[in-house]
Amino acid sequence: MALEFEKITFLKIYTGEDVMLDDRPLYKAIIDEARRLQLAGGTVIKGIEGYATKLRGVGRAINYFVSGNANYPIIIEIVDTREKLEAFLPYLEKNVTNGLVILEDSEYLVTDYTRKRKAERAAIEAQQNQQ
Known about the structure:
It is a single chain. By secondary structure, this protein is α+β, with helices and mostly antiparallel strands. About 40% of the residues lie in helices and about 30% in strands. It contains 4 helices and 6 strands; from the N terminus they run βββαβαβαβα. A 4-stranded antiparallel beta sheet has the order 4-5-1-6, with helices on one face. It has a two-stranded antiparallel ribbon with strand order 2-3. A hairpin with a 2-residue loop joins strand 2 (about 20) and strand 3 (about 25). About 15% of the residues are buried.
């Protein structure tokens, strides 16, 4: 049996743990908005170390000295179709004031699990379109 692949797009946002949007961490705001828009899936990854061309957020040394907490790098990965992720970009353009946003096309291996999830998602979308 030949392996089957389908297209998928990754949206990656690189930022810092201390970067805020209003009164909450930026990564939480982004994941909450992606969930509200019913994007396929999202993950927040906390790095153990990283650097950028300029200091992120409120400042690593001051933050660590005062609180004992380091400002760890954060990567937010969201997957869906390119079309759905492009519709999410205006939100990110407005709110990611300290970070880097990347769109990356890829492919995923189709498995029984992904077939089932795709069918469930299509059924939910069809039901919402009828309302």
